[in-house]
Each structure stands twice: as C-alpha cells, then as structure tokens.
Amino acid sequence: MKLPAVAIPSHLEMLVEMGYNINARDEGGWTPLHEAVGALKLENVHILAQLGANLNIRSNEGTLSAEGERTENTKALKHGKKYLEAANKSGKVHFIQLAYHVLGWLHLQIYLNSNAKQESLLEKAKQWCERSLAYLSKHALDIDCDKNAVQIGQDSRSRKARLQQVLSQICDKMKLQSLSLRYHSAAMAYAVRAGDHDLQYRCLLSKMNFSGDQRLKTAIELVHVASNLDQQASCEAKFILAQEKIRAKDFAGAKWDLISMLASKAHEKLDAEEQRSFYQILITAYKTIERLRVLPDADEHFKMKINEKVADSLYEVGFCEISLEYYKQMLAYACQTEDKIKALVSVAETAKELDRYEEALNCFVEVENLENTLNICNAKKADTSLCIASAAANIDSFAPHEVLEFFRKSECLAVYSHQKKTLYENMLAYMNENDVDKDLRIETEAKLISLSNDQENDSKRPENGEETDENFVDEWDDLSDTQVLARCYEEANRHSMEERIRSEKDKKINLYGETRMHEAARGSDTQHLEMLVEMGYNINARDEGGWTPLHEAVGALKLENVHILAQLGANLNIRSNEGTLSAEGERTVCLICSLFHRVHNDY
Fold this sequence. Notes:
There is one protein chain. The protein is mainly alpha-helical and about 600 residues long. Among the domains are: about 1-60, Serine Threonine Protein Phosphatase 5, Tetratricopeptide repeat, CATH 1.25.40.20; about 65-210, Alpha Horseshoe (Serine Threonine Protein Phosphatase 5, Tetratricopeptide repeat), CATH 1.25.40; about 505-600, Ankyrin repeat-containing domain (Serine Threonine Protein Phosphatase 5, Tetratricopeptide repeat, Alpha Horseshoe), CATH 1.25.40.20. Helix content is about 65%, strand content about 0%. The chain has helices at about 10-15, 30-40, 40-50, 75-90, 95-115, 120-145, 145-155, 155-175, 175-195, 195-205, 215-225, 230-245, 250-265, 270-295, 300-315, 320-335, 335-355, 355-370, 380-390, 400-415, 415-435, 440-450, 480-505, 515-520, 525-535, 550-555, 560-565, 590-600, and strands spanning about 580, 585-590. A two-stranded antiparallel sheet has the order 1-2. Strand 1 (about 580) and strand 2 (about 585-590) form a beta hairpin. It starts with 8 loop residues before the first helix and ends with a helix. Keywords: ANK repeat, Leucine-rich repeat, Nucleus, Repeat.
C-alpha cells in the first residue's frame, strides 16, 4: 500500500512502523518522497529521508504540484526553489541545509530523466550540493546540538555522507572520475562504520557506473548489502548481479540466478519496465547458452552465423560490450568478402555505440577497401564514405580541415536525397562545435534547405542485389518467448527438486527411519531411483527395522527396482530385523528369500 506522504509527521511515522512501503511507486513511478517534495511538506521530506526513503528512485512523470497536477521539469525546479524559500523563512539551519541538498538532487534527477542531456543541469546540481556541503560544515555543531534536527534528518556526519553520495553520482556523469571516487569512498566509509545499509546500497549502485573491471565484484557486494534491506532492494540487486554475470560471459550463472528469481516470483518485485527487461534478458541468456553449445562441432560458416545470432540478441537487450566481442568472433570466421564486410559493419556500428570511434573508423576504412574489390554501386560506397566521415568527426586527433575533407568525399559519392540530407546535417553539427569558416556553414545550410524543397522520391531507387542476405534461422528462432519461459519453469522445478534431494541426502524422512532411497525403492519411478543413486545416496541405508531399499523393493514386489538396485551394487546379503508373518502368525522371510533367489539367478 502506498504511503500518504502528505500526512502529518506523527501519522507518517506511525504508518512506517506499521509496515507501509516507504518506497512504494504509483503508476507514474512516484514515491512518497516525490509527493512530499512536490507538496512542499518540509518536515515530511526530513522524516522520509531519515526513515530510509530512496533518494535515487526516478519517477516516470514530472513533479507533483501542491494541487496535485503533474508538471514539467522547469516547474519541478520552481517547486524546489519554493522549498528553499520555505526553509529560509523557517530560519532553521537544518531545514536550509537539506533544501540545498534537495535542489542539487532535483537537478540530477531531471538530468537523468531527460532524453537530451543538458550539462548545465549537472553543473547546477554540483553547485547546490557543494553549497549544502559548505553550509553543513559551517553549521554542523548547530545541527548536532539540536535534538529535533537530529531526530528529523540525522546528524551532520550522516547528512554529509548522503551529500557525498549524490556528489559522487554527479561527478561521475561529469566525467570527473577522481573527484567522483573520492566522494564515493568517503560516503561508503561512513556507511560501513555506521552500519547504514541503505546508504551502502546507494553508494554501491553509484559505484557500478565507474568501477570498471570491478563491476562484478561490486554487484556481489550489492547483493550482500541488499539482504539487509527490503525484498525489492534484494530483488533489484540480484537482477543487477545477473546482468553483470552476462557481461562477464558467465551465461550459465546468470541464467540460474534469473530462473531462481522466476521460480520464486521474486521478479514480481521489480517495476513494470524492469520486469519486461528481466524476461528479455532471461530468454536471451537461455538461447545464448544453447547456441554456444553447438559451436565446437560446427563448420566455419555455421560458427560465423551463430556468433552473429548471439551478438545480435545481446545487442538488442543492451549488452553492447559483450555483443562487440561476438561480432569480432563473427568476423574471425568470415571467409567470403561479403561476409567480412557485413561483420566489419556490425563491429563498427557497435563500437560507435560504445563511443569507440577510432575502432569504428578503422573498420569502416577496411569495409571501403573491401568494397573497392567488388562491383558495388556508388550509392553503397557513399554510405560507407559517410560512415567514415561521421566517425572521424568524433575523433579529436583529426583537424577540422581533415574531417571536412572526409565529408566532401562523401558528397561527391552521394546519389540519393536521404544520403545528402544526412551528410549536410552531420556537417552542420560538426561545424557548430568546431571553428569552421562561417561562409562554409552558410553554404551548407543553403544546400540543406534546397534539398528539403527537392521532390525527388528515394523510394524509386533501384534495389541493390548485394544487400540481400540469406535469412539464417536456427531452432531457437522458432521458439516463442512463452515456450522458452516454459522451459525455464521446467528447469527451475527440476533444479528445485534436485536441490531438495541434495539437502535430504541420507536423512531420515519419517519416524520409521527411512530415507528417500527407501521411498523410491517401493515406488514406480525408476528414473528417480537411479538419480538418487547417482547423487550419492546410500544404496544400503537401513531404517529402524534394518530394512534396506532392496528389502523395500522386494516387499513391494517392484521387480524392476530390485534389478536396478542389484545392478547398481546393493548388498544382497543384508538381513532385516523384521520379516513378514505367516498364516500361523510366525515370522518368516520366505517371500523375500524367493525373490532374492530370482535376482541371484539373473545376475
């Protein structure tokens, strides 16, 4: 149930104590903290922050005004400033300090939520947080001596650590890596000392973005810390760990982490967007494992196609780094010139996504060299030339006149309007960021305007035969997402059963002292019986009456089980302490002995 953040402070604390979710999100992604900030409920913001509200959850919409209307980002900042005005009017230093913090945090959230990333938002976020830090340093003693301030928003050390955590995020986005790491280390050190698991969790989430080759280790630590928080945080951490395992190419480990979440329904704790991502990543991991399984025995061409399939699927779910590795494997197995061109283009485009423009440029140049050996039309050559120019425009080592020369070459080759339009747009974007002759910019703008008035229909251009490619489909393409998920559920159930069996190995399961082996021996599932033996169960385990699984099979007249147990090494000479009763009420083992003789005769 969602927590009503506009409640009076005492009522708010009572609801938290009653178990209300402090980070519950509505359909717009709003948490109680979003509500409190939007409604300018100053003290409620302090209480929610003190009680562990997640300051890093982003909503799907704008900020909520006091009247309950959703507004744009600019209005959200106005509310933040009104919040500061209210704090200043109160004259309380702990309110003013947190108001600076909230303004910095708001600027960061707006930057993260915006499609167009405005660097000015980060600059202002940094300025407000640093101002809050300086103000806190000046008034730390005042805050620490104010019991009400400490009760509402914690002491100066805790406030400082939370500010440092936000600053580490801001500095990371601004590519101030050393400063980001310094803020992170300070915040994390405090969180560990104070046993503040929520702050540790937020610090580790931030660290994921700048920890380089330590991402997997950080994700493991994140899961450990999240175990001290609520189920949602724990689930999110496990999902993050699974994704990091994929980046480390531990597809099997990732698959079992995800299947475990699926079987336990832990994935339902994720928000709607994350749940969609969860299903797609699980399906991708499952198919990737099955596709890689056939690689060792495949020929070169098939290996190329399988690596392309794996790379494509990983790229589609956002794993560009690992996708690039498989595109390179695709290139390694490509023998035909056309296949090499296709693989090089895939490597280049993926490298561009990762801002590795020099690598992309080298691949496009190699594509151009290979195309020159084939009978390829000018339109196709123009596409490649434009890719070279666009990549060069993002490499600092090239002087403006060199980049413009690349664009001029593309212009000479361009055939269709859409090619020229893209070319001039890219040229203008480059000119706007570099010191280029003003007359050339005006000339390029005129060409673009002239092109917009051109009624040429590119749809009439002839089809290029060389662009067609065989439609390679494997058995995993034929399976729907629902079918793959059904297989995952089956594996989850089997895995769960195997784990239960391992945990119960040779344990007594009832008052008679029987084990699972006894139970299986008198049952009808021969595969289950054989599996227990394979998993190391004692084939000669004895219950309270001295009965072994073989006695159970004989007594239940399960002849096939008797054969299996005898074949797998059951001791045929163990006698039980009990027998069966004759018609006269005397103990006898005749039935058992006669069946034993039949087994002896067979073996």
